[in-house]
Amino acid sequence: MLIEVFSDTVCPWCYVGKLRFGQAAAARPDLAIDLKWLPFELNPQMPAAGADRATYLAAKFGDANRFAEAQRALRGIGAELGIDFRFDLITRMPNTRRSHALIAWAAGAQSDVKERVLRAYFSEGRDIGDAEVLVAIAAEAGLDRMAARVAIDEPMLHREIAALEARAQSWGIAGVPAFVFERRYLVSGAQEPQAFLQVMDKLVAEGATTA
User: Fold this and answer.
1) In the prediction, which pLDDT does 165 show?
2) Domain-located, residue 129
3) What one-character-per-residue DSSP string does 80-148 give?
């Protein structure tokens, strides 16, 4: 079953959605899932070096603490999933293009690298726009450091990211996470596992899976 997930690496709900989807997948161990993690940059115009997070939030929303209440709610939701949201440690608002390039390059290790990038940002406060941070994450996942260093700035991968984001727009996707099942059904947002299971079971019943 082909499942393509558009998300960003600075989106806390994308982290929640990833783990909730994982719970759903674990509930269907006999289902062959071809899972693709695809890019969707929420701040595509962010400078390559990123920006100070408090300054960015104040400039964009007028108040760096605007999301304090939402963050408290997310900490509770995250705790139920094993996510330790530490918004207090995050000091940079990164450009996420390099992190998406790393995830694309990781191929079979995509899901692991994706989660490590999310954890690095949301639980450890690391700057996931920084090349050295991303190379270190790749190494932590058992991947080649030198190859990862080349991949994060590989022009072909960056063009592929732009093309995939254009595809998301052509499919009418305006927010993330967005889970596309067999290019037939869309589940938007970090839904509870049951929402994913309903679509999986529907596709199996229809006999419309590619795996």
Assistant:
1) 98
2) yes
3) HHT----GGG--EE---HHHHHHHHHTGGGHHHHHHHHHHHHHTT---TTSHHHHHHHHHHTT--HHHH
